[in-house]
Amino acid sequence: MADSQEDLIATFCAVTSAEVGTAEQYLQAADYNLENAVELFFASGGASIATQNTVINNDDVAAAEAAQAAEYAEPEVRERIERRVDRLVDPDVPRFVFGNEPPIPSAPRGIFNQGRNMDFAQNMSPHERRLAELFRPPFDMMEDLDLDSAKQEAQEEKKWLLVNIQDTTEFSCQRLNRDLWRHESVKVVVKENFVFLQYDNDSTDGQMYRSLYPFETFPHMAILDPWTGEQQKVWSKVPSVEHFLEDLVEFLGQPGSVEQAPQEPLSVKGTASNTTITQVPEPEIVAGQEKLAEDGEEEEEEEKEEQEEEETTPEDPVASIEPLDIPEPDPGADVTRIQLRLSDGQRIVRRFKVSTKVAEIFAIIKHLKPEFAGKSLVLTAGRQNLSSELEKTIEEANLKNSTVLVES
Fold this sequence. Notes:
The protein is an alpha+beta fold. The protein has helices at residues 3-16, 20-29, 34-43, 49-54, 58-72, 126-134, 147-157, 171-180, 184-193, 204-212, 241-252, 282-292, 296-311, 358-368; strands at 160-166, 194-200, 220-224, 231-235, 335-342, 347-353, 378-381, 384-385, 403-407. A hairpin with a 4-residue loop joins β5 and β6 (347-353).
Protein backbone atom coordinates (compact mmCIF):
# COMPACT_ATOMS: atom_id res chain seq x y z
CA MET A 1 0.00 0.00 0.00
CA ALA A 2 1.33 3.46 -0.87
CA ASP A 3 2.66 5.64 1.96
CA SER A 4 0.09 8.33 1.19
CA GLN A 5 -2.75 5.82 1.60
CA GLU A 6 -1.28 4.60 4.88
CA ASP A 7 -1.12 8.21 6.09
CA LEU A 8 -4.76 8.73 5.14
CA ILE A 9 -5.83 5.56 6.97
CA ALA A 10 -3.84 6.55 10.06
CA THR A 11 -5.36 10.03 10.08
CA PHE A 12 -8.87 8.63 9.53
CA CYS A 13 -8.46 6.25 12.49
CA ALA A 14 -6.99 9.01 14.70
CA VAL A 15 -9.94 11.30 14.02
CA THR A 16 -12.80 8.80 14.02
CA SER A 17 -11.42 6.08 16.35
CA ALA A 18 -12.51 3.57 13.70
CA GLU A 19 -10.85 0.25 12.91
CA VAL A 20 -8.36 0.01 10.05
CA GLY A 21 -10.73 -2.11 7.98
CA THR A 22 -13.54 0.41 8.35
CA ALA A 23 -11.14 3.23 7.46
CA GLU A 24 -10.12 1.44 4.26
CA GLN A 25 -13.79 0.92 3.29
CA TYR A 26 -14.73 4.58 3.71
CA LEU A 27 -11.59 5.88 2.02
CA GLN A 28 -12.12 3.56 -0.95
CA ALA A 29 -15.75 4.67 -1.17
CA ALA A 30 -14.61 8.33 -1.18
CA ASP A 31 -11.81 7.68 -3.69
CA TYR A 32 -9.28 8.37 -0.90
CA ASN A 33 -10.56 11.91 -0.28
CA LEU A 34 -10.08 12.17 3.49
CA GLU A 35 -12.61 14.93 4.08
CA ASN A 36 -15.37 13.17 2.13
CA ALA A 37 -14.58 9.85 3.81
CA VAL A 38 -14.80 11.35 7.30
CA GLU A 39 -18.02 13.18 6.53
CA LEU A 40 -19.48 9.96 5.08
CA PHE A 41 -18.45 8.07 8.22
CA PHE A 42 -20.17 10.51 10.59
CA ALA A 43 -23.22 10.85 8.34
CA SER A 44 -23.73 7.07 8.38
CA GLY A 45 -23.19 6.79 12.12
CA GLY A 46 -19.94 4.87 11.69
CA ALA A 47 -21.58 1.70 10.38
CA SER A 48 -19.55 -0.65 8.21
CA ILE A 49 -20.10 -0.05 4.52
CA ALA A 50 -20.03 -3.83 3.90
CA THR A 51 -22.94 -4.25 6.36
CA GLN A 52 -24.83 -1.40 4.79
CA ASN A 53 -24.51 -2.93 1.34
CA THR A 54 -26.25 -6.18 2.48
CA VAL A 55 -29.36 -4.37 3.66
CA ILE A 56 -32.20 -4.32 1.09
CA ASN A 57 -33.62 -0.86 0.60
CA ASN A 58 -37.41 -1.39 0.70
CA ASP A 59 -38.05 2.06 -0.74
CA ASP A 60 -36.00 1.19 -3.82
CA VAL A 61 -37.94 -2.09 -4.27
CA ALA A 62 -41.28 -0.32 -3.98
CA ALA A 63 -40.16 2.30 -6.46
CA ALA A 64 -39.14 -0.39 -8.94
CA GLU A 65 -42.49 -2.20 -8.60
CA ALA A 66 -44.40 1.04 -9.12
CA ALA A 67 -42.37 1.84 -12.23
CA GLN A 68 -43.07 -1.63 -13.66
CA ALA A 69 -46.83 -1.30 -13.01
CA ALA A 70 -46.87 2.10 -14.64
CA GLU A 71 -45.17 0.71 -17.75
CA TYR A 72 -48.05 -1.72 -18.42
CA ALA A 73 -50.88 0.59 -17.32
CA GLU A 74 -53.22 2.32 -19.72
CA PRO A 75 -51.74 5.61 -20.90
CA GLU A 76 -53.31 8.61 -19.23
CA VAL A 77 -54.45 11.49 -21.45
CA ARG A 78 -53.71 14.80 -19.76
CA GLU A 79 -55.77 17.92 -20.25
CA ARG A 80 -54.55 20.50 -22.72
CA ILE A 81 -52.28 23.16 -21.23
CA GLU A 82 -53.65 26.63 -21.78
CA ARG A 83 -51.52 29.07 -23.74
CA ARG A 84 -49.95 31.78 -21.62
CA VAL A 85 -47.83 34.80 -22.52
CA ASP A 86 -45.71 36.49 -19.87
CA ARG A 87 -42.55 38.58 -19.59
CA LEU A 88 -39.78 36.73 -17.83
CA VAL A 89 -37.04 39.40 -17.91
CA ASP A 90 -37.43 43.14 -18.19
CA PRO A 91 -35.27 44.16 -21.17
CA ASP A 92 -34.53 47.53 -19.54
CA VAL A 93 -32.80 45.95 -16.55
CA PRO A 94 -29.02 45.63 -17.07
CA ARG A 95 -27.60 42.14 -16.91
CA PHE A 96 -25.26 42.98 -14.03
CA VAL A 97 -25.36 45.99 -11.76
CA PHE A 98 -22.88 48.72 -12.85
CA GLY A 99 -21.70 46.40 -15.64
CA ASN A 100 -19.60 44.25 -13.29
CA GLU A 101 -19.62 40.48 -13.47
CA PRO A 102 -20.83 38.90 -10.25
CA PRO A 103 -18.06 37.53 -8.03
CA ILE A 104 -17.23 33.86 -8.38
CA PRO A 105 -18.67 32.11 -5.33
CA SER A 106 -16.08 30.62 -3.03
CA ALA A 107 -16.04 26.93 -2.25
CA PRO A 108 -18.22 25.88 0.70
CA ARG A 109 -16.44 26.01 4.03
CA GLY A 110 -15.45 22.69 5.50
CA ILE A 111 -12.84 20.85 7.50
CA PHE A 112 -10.19 21.26 4.79
CA ASN A 113 -11.37 24.66 3.52
CA GLN A 114 -11.71 26.74 6.67
CA GLY A 115 -12.26 30.46 7.11
CA ARG A 116 -11.01 32.65 9.93
CA ASN A 117 -14.27 32.26 11.83
CA MET A 118 -15.65 28.88 12.88
CA ASP A 119 -19.32 29.54 12.01
CA PHE A 120 -19.36 26.54 9.69
CA ALA A 121 -18.52 24.27 12.66
CA GLN A 122 -21.65 25.08 14.67
CA ASN A 123 -23.53 22.05 13.36
CA MET A 124 -20.57 19.69 13.56
CA SER A 125 -20.34 16.72 15.87
CA PRO A 126 -17.52 16.63 18.46
CA HIS A 127 -15.52 14.32 16.19
CA GLU A 128 -15.85 16.71 13.25
CA ARG A 129 -14.86 19.71 15.36
CA ARG A 130 -11.83 17.78 16.53
CA LEU A 131 -10.84 17.13 12.93
CA ALA A 132 -11.38 20.79 11.99
CA GLU A 133 -9.16 21.93 14.84
CA LEU A 134 -6.48 19.41 13.90
CA PHE A 135 -6.18 20.73 10.33
CA ARG A 136 -6.94 24.40 11.04
CA PRO A 137 -4.74 26.85 9.06
CA PRO A 138 -2.36 29.01 11.15
CA PHE A 139 -4.61 32.08 11.26
CA ASP A 140 -2.87 33.25 14.44
CA MET A 141 0.29 34.13 12.50
CA MET A 142 -1.12 34.75 9.00
CA GLU A 143 -1.54 38.26 7.59
CA ASP A 144 -4.79 38.93 5.70
CA LEU A 145 -3.09 40.96 2.95
CA ASP A 146 -2.44 40.82 -0.76
CA LEU A 147 1.16 40.35 -1.90
CA ASP A 148 1.96 44.04 -2.52
CA SER A 149 0.53 45.13 0.84
CA ALA A 150 2.45 42.36 2.59
CA LYS A 151 5.69 43.52 0.94
CA GLN A 152 5.02 47.05 2.20
CA GLU A 153 4.40 45.79 5.73
CA ALA A 154 7.55 43.68 5.66
CA GLN A 155 9.57 46.71 4.54
CA GLU A 156 8.19 48.79 7.40
CA GLU A 157 8.83 46.07 9.98
CA LYS A 158 12.20 45.12 8.44
CA LYS A 159 11.19 41.49 8.07
CA TRP A 160 11.36 38.92 5.31
CA LEU A 161 8.24 37.69 3.51
CA LEU A 162 7.25 34.02 3.88
CA VAL A 163 4.57 32.77 1.43
CA ASN A 164 2.76 29.40 1.50
CA ILE A 165 0.49 28.34 -1.40
CA GLN A 166 -1.90 25.49 -0.57
CA ASP A 167 -4.10 23.16 -2.62
CA THR A 168 -6.98 21.91 -0.46
CA THR A 169 -7.25 18.76 -2.58
CA GLU A 170 -3.67 17.74 -1.72
CA PHE A 171 -3.37 15.93 1.60
CA SER A 172 0.29 16.99 1.86
CA CYS A 173 -0.97 20.57 2.25
CA GLN A 174 -3.23 19.48 5.11
CA ARG A 175 -0.22 17.77 6.72
CA LEU A 176 1.62 21.09 6.55
CA ASN A 177 -1.13 22.74 8.65
CA ARG A 178 -1.31 19.78 11.01
CA ASP A 179 2.40 19.04 11.56
CA LEU A 180 4.42 22.18 10.79
CA TRP A 181 2.48 25.40 11.32
CA ARG A 182 1.00 24.15 14.64
CA HIS A 183 4.47 23.68 16.18
CA GLU A 184 5.23 26.35 18.80
CA SER A 185 8.92 26.73 17.89
CA VAL A 186 8.00 27.32 14.25
CA LYS A 187 5.41 29.91 15.30
CA VAL A 188 7.97 31.81 17.39
CA VAL A 189 10.60 31.98 14.62
CA VAL A 190 8.09 32.92 11.91
CA LYS A 191 6.35 35.63 13.96
CA GLU A 192 9.64 37.29 14.96
CA ASN A 193 11.30 37.33 11.54
CA PHE A 194 8.66 37.09 8.80
CA VAL A 195 5.44 38.51 7.47
CA PHE A 196 3.60 35.26 6.76
CA LEU A 197 1.02 34.67 4.01
CA GLN A 198 -0.95 31.53 3.19
CA TYR A 199 -3.01 31.57 -0.01
CA ASP A 200 -5.23 28.91 -1.54
CA ASN A 201 -4.15 27.99 -5.06
CA ASP A 202 -7.61 28.84 -6.47
CA SER A 203 -7.83 32.26 -4.80
CA THR A 204 -7.14 35.54 -6.61
CA ASP A 205 -4.00 36.13 -4.53
CA GLY A 206 -2.82 32.57 -5.12
CA GLN A 207 -3.26 32.86 -8.90
CA MET A 208 -1.47 36.23 -8.90
CA TYR A 209 1.47 34.74 -7.00
CA ARG A 210 1.72 31.77 -9.39
CA SER A 211 1.78 34.14 -12.38
CA LEU A 212 4.81 35.89 -10.86
CA TYR A 213 6.55 32.80 -9.46
CA PRO A 214 5.46 29.70 -11.43
CA PHE A 215 5.78 26.33 -9.70
CA GLU A 216 4.39 22.81 -10.16
CA THR A 217 4.16 20.94 -6.85
CA PHE A 218 2.24 21.52 -3.62
CA PRO A 219 2.63 22.66 -0.97
CA HIS A 220 4.81 25.59 -2.06
CA MET A 221 6.73 27.77 0.41
CA ALA A 222 9.13 30.58 -0.39
CA ILE A 223 11.01 33.40 1.33
CA LEU A 224 10.88 36.68 -0.62
CA ASP A 225 12.91 39.86 -0.30
CA PRO A 226 10.17 42.49 0.16
CA TRP A 227 12.28 45.18 -1.53
CA THR A 228 13.35 43.36 -4.69
CA GLY A 229 10.69 40.62 -4.79
CA GLU A 230 13.44 38.04 -5.37
CA GLN A 231 12.89 34.51 -4.06
CA GLN A 232 15.56 33.80 -1.46
CA LYS A 233 14.62 30.20 -0.62
CA VAL A 234 11.98 27.71 -1.84
CA TRP A 235 10.49 24.50 -0.40
CA SER A 236 8.45 22.18 -2.63
CA LYS A 237 7.56 19.44 -0.15
CA VAL A 238 6.62 19.15 3.51
CA PRO A 239 9.80 19.36 5.63
CA SER A 240 10.04 17.97 9.12
CA VAL A 241 9.87 20.50 11.94
CA GLU A 242 13.55 19.97 12.72
CA HIS A 243 14.73 20.44 9.11
CA PHE A 244 12.49 23.47 8.60
CA LEU A 245 13.82 25.20 11.73
CA GLU A 246 17.40 24.37 10.66
CA ASP A 247 16.71 25.93 7.25
CA LEU A 248 15.27 29.08 8.82
CA VAL A 249 18.11 29.47 11.33
CA GLU A 250 20.69 28.96 8.58
CA PHE A 251 18.98 31.52 6.34
CA LEU A 252 18.54 34.10 9.10
CA GLY A 253 22.18 33.67 10.11
CA GLN A 254 23.47 34.70 6.69
CA PRO A 255 24.74 38.26 6.05
CA GLY A 256 21.81 40.50 5.21
CA SER A 257 19.38 38.60 7.45
CA VAL A 258 17.79 39.34 10.82
CA GLU A 259 19.39 42.57 12.17
CA GLN A 260 20.42 43.46 8.60
CA ALA A 261 17.10 42.32 7.15
CA PRO A 262 15.72 44.22 4.15
CA GLN A 263 16.79 47.80 4.76
CA GLU A 264 15.64 50.94 3.02
CA PRO A 265 17.36 51.62 -0.33
CA LEU A 266 20.33 53.94 -0.49
CA SER A 267 19.56 57.63 -0.75
CA VAL A 268 21.31 60.02 -3.13
CA LYS A 269 21.25 62.92 -0.74
CA GLY A 270 23.37 62.94 2.39
CA THR A 271 21.14 62.45 5.42
CA ALA A 272 21.62 61.62 9.05
CA SER A 273 20.57 58.03 8.33
CA ASN A 274 23.56 57.62 6.00
CA THR A 275 26.09 58.88 8.55
CA THR A 276 28.07 56.29 10.47
CA ILE A 277 28.52 57.28 14.13
CA THR A 278 31.20 55.46 16.10
CA GLN A 279 31.17 55.61 19.88
CA VAL A 280 34.57 56.75 21.20
CA PRO A 281 35.73 56.18 24.78
CA GLU A 282 35.81 59.32 26.90
CA PRO A 283 39.64 59.46 27.43
CA GLU A 284 40.17 59.42 23.69
CA ILE A 285 37.71 62.28 23.27
CA VAL A 286 39.66 64.39 25.77
CA ALA A 287 42.95 63.62 24.06
CA GLY A 288 41.43 64.49 20.73
CA GLN A 289 40.22 67.86 21.98
CA GLU A 290 43.70 68.74 23.28
CA LYS A 291 45.26 67.86 19.95
CA LEU A 292 42.59 69.60 17.85
CA ALA A 293 44.30 72.99 17.88
CA GLU A 294 47.65 71.53 16.85
CA ASP A 295 46.16 69.68 13.89
CA GLY A 296 44.09 72.60 12.59
CA GLU A 297 46.60 73.68 9.96
CA GLU A 298 47.19 70.09 8.82
CA GLU A 299 43.44 69.55 8.31
CA GLU A 300 43.20 72.68 6.16
CA GLU A 301 46.02 71.40 3.97
CA GLU A 302 44.35 68.00 3.66
CA GLU A 303 41.06 69.63 2.62
CA LYS A 304 42.87 71.55 -0.11
CA GLU A 305 44.46 68.34 -1.37
CA GLU A 306 41.05 66.58 -1.40
CA GLN A 307 39.54 69.45 -3.40
CA GLU A 308 42.35 69.20 -5.95
CA GLU A 309 41.79 65.43 -6.22
CA GLU A 310 38.06 65.98 -6.80
CA GLU A 311 38.82 68.43 -9.59
CA THR A 312 40.96 65.82 -11.34
CA THR A 313 38.50 62.94 -10.76
CA PRO A 314 37.61 61.14 -14.02
CA GLU A 315 34.20 61.74 -15.58
CA ASP A 316 31.27 59.98 -13.88
CA PRO A 317 30.74 56.76 -15.88
CA VAL A 318 26.96 56.89 -15.30
CA ALA A 319 26.65 60.47 -16.56
CA SER A 320 28.55 59.53 -19.72
CA ILE A 321 26.12 56.71 -20.63
CA GLU A 322 24.19 57.71 -23.75
CA PRO A 323 20.44 57.02 -24.20
CA LEU A 324 19.71 53.84 -26.19
CA ASP A 325 16.48 52.69 -27.82
CA ILE A 326 16.75 48.92 -27.24
CA PRO A 327 13.64 46.93 -28.32
CA GLU A 328 11.78 45.11 -25.56
CA PRO A 329 12.25 41.32 -25.97
CA ASP A 330 9.37 38.87 -26.23
CA PRO A 331 8.59 36.68 -23.18
CA GLY A 332 10.81 33.63 -22.86
CA ALA A 333 12.91 31.51 -20.54
CA ASP A 334 15.83 33.96 -20.79
CA VAL A 335 13.64 37.04 -20.23
CA THR A 336 12.65 38.66 -16.93
CA ARG A 337 10.54 41.62 -15.82
CA ILE A 338 11.96 44.57 -13.88
CA GLN A 339 9.89 47.35 -12.34
CA LEU A 340 11.48 50.81 -12.50
CA ARG A 341 10.16 53.11 -9.77
CA LEU A 342 10.97 56.80 -10.39
CA SER A 343 11.37 59.43 -7.69
CA ASP A 344 8.13 61.16 -8.82
CA GLY A 345 6.14 57.98 -8.11
CA GLN A 346 5.87 56.83 -11.74
CA ARG A 347 6.40 53.13 -12.35
CA ILE A 348 7.64 51.49 -15.55
CA VAL A 349 7.50 47.70 -15.96
CA ARG A 350 9.66 46.39 -18.79
CA ARG A 351 11.02 43.05 -20.04
CA PHE A 352 14.81 42.52 -20.25
CA LYS A 353 16.97 39.62 -21.34
CA VAL A 354 18.82 38.22 -18.33
CA SER A 355 22.06 38.69 -20.33
CA THR A 356 21.45 42.47 -20.53
CA LYS A 357 24.19 44.47 -18.79
CA VAL A 358 23.30 46.86 -15.99
CA ALA A 359 24.77 49.74 -18.00
CA GLU A 360 22.11 49.13 -20.66
CA ILE A 361 19.39 49.61 -18.04
CA PHE A 362 20.75 53.11 -17.41
CA ALA A 363 20.79 53.74 -21.17
CA ILE A 364 17.20 52.57 -21.62
CA ILE A 365 15.99 54.73 -18.71
CA LYS A 366 17.66 57.78 -20.25
CA HIS A 367 15.91 57.00 -23.54
CA LEU A 368 12.51 56.59 -21.86
CA LYS A 369 13.02 59.76 -19.78
CA PRO A 370 14.93 62.28 -21.95
CA GLU A 371 15.27 64.68 -19.00
CA PHE A 372 17.81 62.24 -17.50
CA ALA A 373 20.17 62.50 -20.50
CA GLY A 374 23.66 63.65 -19.48
CA LYS A 375 22.82 63.27 -15.79
CA SER A 376 24.27 60.94 -13.19
CA LEU A 377 21.50 58.59 -12.07
CA VAL A 378 21.44 56.46 -8.96
CA LEU A 379 19.79 53.06 -9.35
CA THR A 380 19.28 50.90 -6.28
CA ALA A 381 17.80 47.45 -5.81
CA GLY A 382 17.32 46.68 -2.15
CA ARG A 383 20.68 47.49 -0.52
CA GLN A 384 22.61 47.32 -3.82
CA ASN A 385 23.81 50.46 -5.63
CA LEU A 386 23.90 49.51 -9.31
CA SER A 387 26.34 52.27 -10.27
CA SER A 388 29.15 49.92 -9.28
CA GLU A 389 27.68 46.94 -11.18
CA LEU A 390 27.63 48.41 -14.72
CA GLU A 391 29.47 45.52 -16.38
CA LYS A 392 27.45 42.79 -14.69
CA THR A 393 24.46 41.18 -16.38
CA ILE A 394 20.98 41.26 -14.85
CA GLU A 395 21.41 37.61 -13.86
CA GLU A 396 24.82 38.21 -12.28
CA ALA A 397 23.48 41.19 -10.33
CA ASN A 398 20.46 39.15 -9.08
CA LEU A 399 17.96 41.59 -10.60
CA LYS A 400 15.46 39.08 -12.02
CA ASN A 401 11.84 40.01 -11.13
CA SER A 402 13.12 42.91 -9.03
CA THR A 403 12.15 46.52 -8.35
CA VAL A 404 14.76 49.19 -9.13
CA LEU A 405 14.56 52.68 -7.62
CA VAL A 406 15.63 55.49 -9.99
CA GLU A 407 16.84 58.83 -8.58
CA SER A 408 18.62 61.72 -10.25
